[in-house]
Specification:
The complex is a heterodimer of chains A (about 350) and B (about 600). Chain A is of the alpha/beta class and about 350 residues long. Chain A is about 30% helix and about 20% strand. Chain A has one domain: Thiamin diphosphate (ThDP)-binding fold, Pyr/PP domains (Rossmann fold), CATH 3.40.50.970. An eight-stranded mixed β-sheet of chain A has the order 2-1-3-4-8-7-13-9, sandwiched between helices. A three-stranded antiparallel β-sheet of chain A has the order 10-12-11. In chain A, strands 5-6 form a two-stranded antiparallel sheet. By secondary structure, chain B is an alpha/beta fold. Classes of the chains: A alpha/beta (about 350), B alpha/beta (about 600). The interface between A and B is large, with 60 and 71 residues.
């Protein structure tokens, strides 16, 4: 921890933003992923996250390198390709007090790891699941991923003829209670959503369109910085109010809708474009599909249902981390073994 | 009674096999025969006679042929026996084949309309009018199929001299809590017995005579024994995916956990059990849970281990603990899912790409299934690595008699974990530094407060401080330390056991081959060929194994696979003695028997 100085204000825990950084990024200059990393650092700082409780998970790919670039006070696990969700599942069960952040990419989650994505969401594993989505494989130098838009082309001129898989509609279909899409170039929106994500109990699916400046930023790409910026349709202005601040915040009545989390935190949603209700699951599906057909990126909080029980509750686990349970609680007595042996005689 | 099976009256003669025989029961899968067979086995066991059962079942829900063999042995031999003294043929589909393969003189109980007595004249045929007996003993037609099997239990009990009181007791135990079913089945067994009493003369070929060999023993299968070991070891996270023959390990664990792993204060569970979407995800859960400080496990079989192998390599390289059961079946590929083999030896020894070496435990009986399971969780945390407990279908799913398990009094060994205070006091802590010279570094657990001890775990190259590195010296420091760690394991894993008759010829076996190896050793000794027997119980090989290999002129290495996989590991570990190892193999999917070992060793000796 660095000593707070007047130039670097501290949060309620006494940490400065510097306490939430990681090691230096080795990604390409201008990579959208670095902008996301910056917002994670900011949101963790503003949300007063205890760094030691953070567990960061990733698979393989450019995006999967990024957990090393934020919250050095937390533990990181860069695992194998497409298998980050099962790692987060295991750790979140071992210690339910961990704050789990999984960072994945469109290749890691929508190709090799689709199965694990689907089942982690279905189980409502307590984690923020970030997909840094650029429609391309960067580390292997520019092949299409499964989120690449139909008709999009590579630098080499190759055209993608296959339909994309959309992580957001898939997540809503699977019953995810917090689904959002953001653009790495819109830090305000991303910051608000990340803060809300930190307060959420179950799986948060966050699809962040993050242009690849090296392999997918040319004019014929539908994931170039310019193309996404031109086709980004934010649904609403979002504000997040942590439970501890609820009393202090004056919320304008009328046009702003509030969604309350179990801990008392609130998301304030002020619609911009249309009458979009993020609590309406079927309406959300319809709106997203319609926007995709128009070639637009609908961004913001696409669907929210804060009441779904996370996996540890579904399994009725004790409140204390399983990892720290004592032998006296875990090991049945000699009398129990005796009873079992008698039953087998 | 049409064909005359044996001379009437004397129940024991000079050639009577007392408490020393095998029965093979041929039935149809899904017909409820498993209950009947278990009852017969239990009744003999309750008579005080050593008994073992082997279910040879198809990969099928219902309708395909299945065979169950029960071996009684006064000497305590529990391996499969190649010959059978009694056949019970209930499956019309296989009856002709079964009777063609029957050993000369065998007693054959069968359904009267099959007219099997016309096929061979060198057997003692016992046709039974099952349909008539079923109709008389059971008023409900839809239950006839189930009850029919219990009738042969009654007939066989009368023929063998099994006390019907024990049969009734066994039925009550088997169907505990289902009073109506108990009554129905007891009546059926009695109907068979009464019919046999009235219609069959005494025979003196095979008899069960009350003994006291099973006093205080239990009957259990290896999957249950392993599940109990994991329960007492305090396993807290289970990620699994169903696969024959490994599923019942976790399923039994779930049953016990529901009773014994509930926090009495809150009524909440102290273990998380999740059926995952596949074996890959199961392995991910196990390793991440172990990394986060839980005691974690999964249970799978060969195909599952193949799928998990990328993760196993990750666990080895990043040093994350976890217990991996491989209840092996017959491979390769889907192979014979319901048959046994020891053919994943090399897979589990070196699972995953790159240079990897794993600690493997090979329990050879029920007590060891229990104890090694308990130990595996200690070893996983002590060595911060995936541990394989390798059993097989024969150990895992068959009925074995065993001494009751001793309570594991040894406290849990949670390994080298630094807590908040230790981390605060530690000078220059590095996740992968070898402070003690034993190759085992100190770890911290996610969620430890205090601002110290956080590190980044990665399957890519790393240095002693867990930082990304591609430097040759950093890479070598880690992988060479991992090799030292494996050396250290030699002093922690179970040592081999010996059964020495005083010979320079070695006999070596492990796991489910043990009972057949012991029996073969006795048979060979009686024929004048003495051997010293080493039962291997773990990888890496310990100093006792080194000495055995050095001392013996020849080592007959018994295993249940085609390629002599364990022999390959020995030849690789002891290249200077490579020619000493002679493979004695059995790999047709049936459990190994003593005869095949005796025959192969005899052939080697005659060369």
């Amino acid at each position: 921890m660095t000593t707070p100085t007047p130039a670097s204000p501290a949060n309620k825990l006494g940490f400065t933003k510097q306490d939430y950084v990681g090691s230096k990024s080795t990604l390409c200059a201008g990579c959208g992923h670095d902008a996301i990393t910056a917002q994670i650092i900011n949101a963790a700082f503003e949300s007063n996250i205890e760094g030691y409780r953070v567990a960061k998970f990733s698979g393989i790919g450019c995006s999967s390198k990024t957990p090393a670039y934020f919250i050095n006070q937390g533990w990181g696990f860069n695992s194998v390709h497409g298998r980050m969700p099962s790692m987060a599942t295991g750790a979140s069960l071992a210690n339910r007090q961990l704050i789990n952040i999984g960072v994945s990419g469109d290749g890691d989650s929508m190709s090799i790891g689709t199965g694990q994505f689907v089942h982690a969401v279905r189980r409502n594993v307590a984690m923020i699941y970030i997909i840094e989505d650029n429609g391309v494989y960067g580390l292997t130098k520019g092949q299409f991923s499964a989120t690449a838009d139909k008709g999009s082309s590579l630098k080499s001129g190759a055209v993608n003829e296959l339909p994309p898989i959309d992580p957001c509609t898939l997540a809503i279909e699977l019953g995810c209670g917090f689904v959002a899409r953001c653009f790495s170039g819109n830090p305000k929106q991303l910051g608000a959503i990340l803060k809300a994500a930190f307060a959420y109990q179950g799986t948060v699916v966050l699809d962040i369109i993050s242009p690849c400046v090296t392999f997918n930023n040319h004019d014929a790409s539908t994931r170039s910085y310019k193309h996404v910026k031109d086709h980004d349709f934010p649904l609403h202005d979002l504000g997040f109010i942590q439970y501890s601040e609820v009393e202090d915040v004056d919320i304008a009545a009328g046009e702003t809708e509030l969604v309350t989390f179990p801990d008392g935190s609130k998301v304030a949603i002020k619609a911009i474009h249309e009458d979009y209700d993020p609590k309406d699951r079927f309406g959300a599906m319809k709106a997203i599909h319609e926007s995709m057909e128009k070639g637009e990126f609908l961004t913001g909080l696409l669907y929210i249902n804060p009441t779904q029980p996370p996996l540890p509750d579904l399994l009725n686990l004790v409140d204390e981390p399983l990892a720290s349970l004592d032998e006296t609680l875990l090991k049945p007595s000699p009398a129990v073994l005796d009873d079992i042996m008698k039953a087998l005689m | 009674m049409t064909a005359s099976p044996a001379a009437p009256s004397p129940t024991q003669g000079a050639k009577t096999r007392i408490n020393d025989f095998s029965i093979q029961v041929a039935t149809v899968n899904g017909s409820g025969s498993q209950t009947a067979n278990t009852v017969l086995l239990r009744a003999i066991f309750q008579m005080g006679v050593f008994v073992s059962g082997k279910n040879l079942f198809p990969s099928n829900i219902a309708g395909l042929p299945t065979w169950f063999t029960i071996r009684a042995s006064a000497k305590g031999y529990v391996a499969r026996k190649a010959s059978n003294e009694m056949l019970i043929l209930m499956n019309p589909e296989t009856a002709k084949d079964d009777i063609a393969k029957a050993d000369v003189g065998a007693l054959v109980i069968y359904d009267e309309p099959l007219q099997l007595d016309k096929l061979r004249s060198d057997l003692s045929c016992i046709p039974v009018p099952f349909q008539k007996l079923v109709t008389a003993s059971c008023p409900e037609p839809k239950l006839h199929k189930l009850v029919k099997n219990m009738i042969y239990v009654g007939v066989a009990s009368r023929v063998l001299g099994v006390d019907m009181a024990e049969v009734k007791k066994a039925i009550a135990k088997q169907l505990k809590g289902k009073d109506k079913a108990i009554e129905l089945n007891q009546n059926a067994a009695m109907a068979g017995y009464d019919w046999a009493m009235e219609n069959l003369p005494d025979q003196d070929q095979v008899r069960v005579v009350r003994d006291n060999k099973t006093q205080g023993l239990i009957i259990v299968d290896g999957n249950e024994a392993c599940a109990l070991g994991a329960l007492f070891a305090g396993c807290t996270v289970v990620g699994w995916y169903p696969i024959t023959p490994a599923s019942t390990l976790v399923e039994t664990f779930i049953e016990y956990a529901q009773e014994y792993r509930i926090d009495p204060k809150t009524g909440k569970s102290t273990v998380a059990i999740v059926q995952m979407e596949d074996e890959l995800a199961s392995a991910g859960v196990v390793l991440a849970a172990g990394w986060a400080g839980a005691r974690s496990m999964t249970s799978t079989s060969g195909p599952g281990v193949s799928l998990m192998s990328e993760f196993i390599g990750l666990g080895y390289y990043v040093e994350a603990p976890g217990v991996f059961y491989n209840v092996a079946r017959t491979g390769p590929s889907t192979g014979l899912p319901t048959r046994t083999q020891q053919s994943d030896i090399e897979l589990c020894a070196k699972c995953s790409h790159g240079d990897t070496q794993h600690i493997n435990l090979y329990p050879g009986n029920m007590e060891e299934c229990f104890q090694f399971s308990y130990d595996a969780f200690d070893l996983a945390e002590r060595f911060q690595t995936p541990i394989f407990v390798v059993t097989d279908l024969d150990l895992g799913m068959q009925n074995w008699s065993s001494k009751p398990f001793d309570y594991p009094t040894k406290p849990y060994d949670r390994g080298k974990v630094l807590n908040q205070q230790q981390l605060a006091e530690a000078q220059d802590w590095g996740r992968y530094k070898d402070v003690d010279g034993d190759g085992i570094p100190y770890r911290s657990l996610p969620g430890t407060p205090g601002g110290k001890g956080a590190y980044f775990t990665r399957g890519s190259g790393h240095n002693a401080y867990a930082q990304y590195s591609e430097k040759p010296e950093d890479y070598l420091a880690v992988v060479d330390r991992l090799k030292r760690k494996y050396e250290t394991a030699k002093t922690y894993v179970p040592k081999p056991l010996f059964r020495n008759l005083g010979s320079d010829k070695g006999l070596l076996a492990f796991g489910s081959s043990n009972p057949a190896a012991i029996e073969a050793q006795d048979i060979l000794a009686e024929a004048g060929l003495k051997t010293d027997y080493l039962r291997l119980r773990a990888l890496p090989f310990t100093a006792e194994v080194d000495a055995f290999v050095q001392e013996k002129q020849v080592v007959y290495l018994v295993e249940q696979n085609r390629d002599g996989q364990m022999a390959n590991l020995f030849r690789e570990t002891y290249p200077e003695f490579a020619t000493k190892f002679k493979s004695v193999l059995h790999y047709d999917g049936h459990a190994i028997d003593a005869k095949c070992i005796v025959d192969q060793i005899t052939a080697f000796e005659q060369k």
